[in-house]
Amino acid sequence: MKTILSRIGLGLLLLLIVSIGVCFYIGEFNYAYSLMILLLFVFGGMGAIYKLRNDEYMYDRHLSSRSSGRSEYEEYTR
Q1: Would you say 2 and 10 are in contact if contact means Cβ atoms under 8 Å apart?
Q2: Is the predicted pLDDT of residue 76 greater than 80, yes or no?
Q3: Which one of 27, 34, 40, 45 is most buried, counting C-beta atoms within 10 A?
Q4: Residues contacting residue 61 through CB under 8 Å, at least 6 positions apart
């Protein structure tokens, strides 16, 4: 399922980049700039989601290192 969604996402990304180029070529600058802003929002949202997932992962590792008796330094250098 993950590979199918990633292929669909890459296809949509390629289609979006081509459509931005076509809009600039035919002179529809407003559409091209709005598609660029949409692309910026998509990448910004993906970055926020990945940061949230990383923070959650680091917090869970911190809690598991406390319960196992290891120090934070040992867990980091391990």
Answers
A1: no
A2: no
A3: 34
A4: 75
